[in-house]
Amino acid sequence: MRPALDHLGRGDVRAWLTEQDPAALDLLWQRADEVRRERVGDEVRLRGLVEVTNYCVRQCAYCGIAACAGPLPRYRMTHDEILACARQGRDLGFGTIVLQGGEDPGLTGAFVAGVVRAVKEETGAAITLSLGERSDTDLRAWREAGADRYLLRFETTDAALFRRIHPDLPGTVSDRIGQLLRMREMGYEIGTGVMVGIPGQTWDTLADDIWAFRHYDMDMVGIGPYLPGSRTPLAGPLGAELAAPPSEQVSNDELTTLKAVALTRLICPDTNIPGTTALSVLDPAAGRANALCRGANVIMPNLTPPQYRVLYEIYPGKAAAHETADALAEKVFALIGGLGRTVGTGAGGRSS
Ligand code: SAM
Description:
This protein is an alpha/beta fold. Helices cover about 40% and strands about 10% of the residues.
């Protein structure tokens, strides 16, 4: 029997994830698109992404800029360089600037607070930070400086798997959900997400992940395929060790990612959901458009200067690493127009 599409339970989410019948999946896509239109409208909200540093102290087994990912030229953008990117985002009409990077203690609390203040003052844009696990002192200072939102993917609800792919730093225990909930108390809108198809992720785990987005009432949810990078431990023996039996292991393909996007729209109807860059690496021609037609309502055009963008290789083949920000934005505007959707104006938060 076909699983329900309205009032989805956890079991329905699990069943839809493995649904293969194209006619049934058409119903899922249609319903996700309807709910997207009813709840968040036809606007595609644009967030200009600035990848401010590729230094990272973490040893995440999946990530191409982790400390363990082998020799890699490292960069940290200056205050003025970040501000120039933010201005470019403002000139392109983006209502949000996202400052993302590795977990980099060299990016001090005071430096980030100064950048946030300057970006806010010059652009008036909403500011999203995505700088990993930081102290409450830093997070509070950044909020006071004007940061509006914070992205921190919990990566998986399977605690044992999380510890294997995201080792703790010495003397600390990683608690990403805890940090997200504290940030909500500080007044941030909070965003999270997962990769689809990491070795060891079962269909049950992914259903639990999607269920957790609703349980914690996340304001934003980013879902992209896991893309193995040859320099990372998860692409080698660790991945083979962690992989679930074939019938239980989630595949890291476009179809499964799109199912997770559509189901997230159905169970978190008014959350902001991006069509992720990782999806457009799997399917450069149609990945983002497919996501926008199956529940997504956000795109994050890249504003990072090309000489740094090529070094922010968190996974291989990161889309359009050599194109200018203006050229990338043009493509995004054309994509949105081609789908009959409109370009979002304003901050585009969950509540604005
Ligand atoms: N350092 C911050 C953090 O950890 O939240 C932000 C940057 S981190 C590179 C952003 C996200 O990239 C991660 O949360 C992870 O889900 C995603 N990512 C990293 N490696 C990936 C891979 N190999 N395939 C797909 N996504 C990946």
